[in-house]
Write a structure and sequence with these properties.
Layout: E1 2-7, H1 13-24, E2 28-30, H2 31-41, H3 44-54, H4 61-72, E3 81-84, H5 90-98, E4 105-110, H6 113-120, E5 123-126, E6 132-134, E7 153-154, H7 161-175, H8 177-183, E8 188-192, H9 197-208
Parallel strand pairs: 1-3, 1-4, 2-3, 4-8
Antiparallel strand pairs: 5-6, 5-7
Helix pairs in contact: 1-9, 2-3, 6-7
The structure holds adenosine monophosphate.
Length: about 210
């Protein structure tokens, strides 16, 4: 199964990717996670990416296309994958097509902008393994501590309210046109994001069940 998961920032792409990854035993590939890792390591690519990310803008295509190309050609992806956060623009989708990557389905998680702003203010991320939490909807067992690895949780720089609004504008202007792009190819499946993570997961699994072998 080769799947793309899309949705506004904070729609729950990462959380649902984890669920699909566990159920279907395929890797979830998040360009956002890869870029944050590069920022943390202070690589030249990370330094370039940081200024765009902090400003709520997309990192230039050549950077993300390069990292995704390397990853998809690795053995890990031979039985399928979930792309979380890529492509995020029509040129990126065209680059994926040009790589000869065949996609089976594109899942879009729909959440209203007002809800997104509310959700982002409660998001917390593990400083070590990158796991994502929410103070109200997906709280860690111990406040401020990752359930998986015990490291401290932090608030992403780009989750600041002003940056979230910029990211939403970028999403609507640049990423959302992908829905039409993939609908025209008969690949688009839309799911309404629910209040509870488990309810969204149920909707996602129902929508994807028709792709199960
Ligand atoms: P995410 O974790 O998916 O919300 O991504 C965080 C930030 O990383 C985005 O706001 C962008 O600045 C950058 N980013 C992630 N994926 C891409 C992509 N496919 N193209 C350009 N920028 C990206």
């Amino acid at each position: 199964m080769r799947l793309i998961i899309m949705g506004a920032p904070g729609a729950g792409k990462g959380t649902q990717s984890e669920k699909i990854s566990a159920k279907w035993n395929i890797p979830a590939v998040s360009t956002g996670d890869m870029l944050r890792a590069a920022v943390k390591e202070g690589t030249p690519m990370g330094l370039t990416a940081k200024s765009y990310m902090d400003g709520g803008q997309l990192v230039p295509d050549e950077v993300v296309i390069g990292i995704i190309k390397d990853y998809l050609s690795s053995d890990k992806c031979s039985d399928g994958f979930i792309l979380d956060g890529f492509p995020r623009s029509i040129p990126q989708a065209e680059a994926l097509d040009a790589m000869g990557v065949k996609i089976d389905a594109v899942l879009s998680i729909e959440v209203a902008d007002e809800k997104i702003v509310e959700r982002m203010s409660g998001r917390r991320i593990c400083s070590s393994c990158g796991a994502s939490y929410h103070v109200a909807y997906k709280a860690p067992k111990t406040e401020g501590i990752c359930d998986h690895c015990g490291s401290a949780l932090y608030i992403r720089d780009d989750d600041a309210a002003e940056t979230v609004l910029k990211r939403l504008t970028t999403y609507h202007n640049t990423t959302e046109p992908l829905k039409e792009y993939y609908a025209a190819k008969g690949l688009l499946v839309c799911v309404e994001g629910q209040e509870e993570v488990a309810d969204t997961t149920a909707e996602v699994m129902k929508a994807l069940s028709k792709f199960e072998a």
